[in-house]
Amino acid sequence: MTTRELQPDGGWIVTATPRIAPPPPAERGLFFRTVAQASRLFGRAQVPDVFSMLHINPRLFWGWLYFASRLMPFGRLPARDREKLILRTAWNCRSRYEWGQHVELALRAGVTDAEIVALTGSVAALTDLDEQVMIQACDELCRQHHVGDMTWAELSARLDEKQLLEFMLLVGHYQMLAGTLNSAGLVLEPSAEAALQAFHQRIAG
Q: Taking the CA of residue 67 as centre, how many other CA atoms within 13 Å lie in the half-sphere pointing to its CB?
């Protein structure tokens, strides 16, 4: 039986067929074996296809990988907050691949099923004031590309300037990545898809 899954307004963005596919494992060579080891730093036993797809352009890939790692997993924001921000960004951008990958990572960081479900609703429905401010700022960045004065005042009362910059770059990075994933038509790997379906079955129960 198929479990009905959460979907943002308008549904997930899906292309009819993948437009840029990751190379098959046999064509990944030394790169695949090297990054397979490094992928454990990102909480993965296997390399997600996003890495192999982006490595089609190696000139950009290695710089991106270093920058991305400064945000996750080596960022200075608490892991739970970081994953909630990434999930909300994925939801706002209607990126099922990004959402599916980070549901699993969020659970590993200690975010509960109920907290993930709450991230799909309105900011006002969130019960924690700090989380309301954080998600409101995320929404404003995604929708207006600007944090408004009132939200900024609330956010800057909670984060110092280094954290504020990391906050904005984290959301901006995952917006950029979501647009790339949506346009390329990348689909979740079977293991990530299974974890996402297990999540939907739990919340349905």
A: 12
